[in-house]
TrEMBL record:
InterPro entries: NAD(P)-bd_dom_sf (IPR036291), Sc_DH/Rdtase_CS (IPR020904), SDR_fam (IPR002347). It comes from Lentinula guzmanii. The keyword Repeat does not apply. This is NAD(P)-binding protein. It comes from the Eukaryota. Pfam families: adh_short. Belongs to the short-chain dehydrogenases/reductases (SDR) family.
Length: 263
């Protein structure tokens, strides 16, 4: 059975206080299946808005070290033992120009938020999901990558690289979990209306080209319900189908050969 958000009973969404994360949290909460939604973010004023929309709100900054992340995950599992779905939408984006002085601290933070924090959260939730899977309950892991994982934007080189790493992780994780009830859906947006670009002052220019958030959310929820392995739209979909989709079968075949040789 293909993984689908319609099977989810309790969905934890990171990055839920703005942009794609918030839009997906609200849309998932409005599904006919009425899953419980837990919105996670670091801004208290925005979390209050989620509560007003009937979403459970939890304060956490994903730019935390692994000990704090582990403690947070354990707290969430204890408080919401029905959690069976992760939508990992938190992210940051910064420009970098290697012809000038590079802020390595900013690059490390961007890489941590966009890649390592997601890897850590998946790792810490995995025993919980494996237990549910063993009982036959479907679970779902849905990281948000980007169309820039397939074709990088040179002016945001580290952001593009972090999303490429996350895309690769999704592909491998999906194959590793093939014999479980844990599905992996990669959410791969094109340029979408978002506050993500405010930090670099590029919002006004990009607003002439981006996909409206409402349109993006509607299309993405539809892909989520179908159980597409990669939910992508617009230019991201074009890039995925041309460059990445042909690789998916190769990844699976490589894993099968490796398993055969290890026996």
């Amino acid at each position: 059975m293909a993984p689908s958000i319609d099977n989810s009973r309790c969905v934890l969404v990171t990055g839920a206080t703005s942009g794609i994360g918030r839009a997906l949290a609200l849309a998932i909460a409005a599904l006919p299946s009425h899953p419980k939604v837990i919105g996670v973010g670091r801004r208290k004023d925005r979390l209050a808005g989620l509560k007003d929309a009937g979403i459970d709100a939890e304060e956490f900054d994903v730019n935390a070290d692994r000990v704090k992340t582990k403690n947070f995950v354990e707290e969430m599992i204890q408080k919401y033992p029905e959690i069976d779905t992760l939508v990992l939408a938190a992210g940051v984006q910064r420009e970098v120009n290697f012809k000038k002085e590079v802020d390595l601290d900013a690059i490390a933070t961007e890489l941590h938020v966009n890649y390592f924090s997601i890897l850590a959260m998946i790792s810490f939730f995995m025993p919980h999901f494996m237990t549910k899977s063993a009982s036959g309950q479907p679970c779902l892991i849905a990281p948000v990558t980007s169309g820039l994982a397939y074709i990088p934007a040179p002016w945001i080189a580290n952001y593009s690289a972090s999303k490429a790493a996350l895309h690769s992780l999704c592909s491998s994780l999906r194959v590793q979990l093939e014999d479980t009830e844990i599905g992996v859906i990669e959410i791969s947006p094109p340029l979408v209306e978002s506050e993500l670009h405010d930090a670099e002052g590029t919002t006004e220019a990009l607003s002439k080209f981006w996909m409206p958030l409402s349109e993006y959310t509607k299309e993405t929820i539809a892909g989520f319900q179908r159980g597409d392995s990669v939910v992508c739209n617009g230019m991201a979909k074009n890039a995925y189908e041309k460059f990445e989709k042909p690789k998916e079968q190769m990844v699976s075949e490589m894993a099968k050969r490796a398993a055969t040789h290890s026996k």
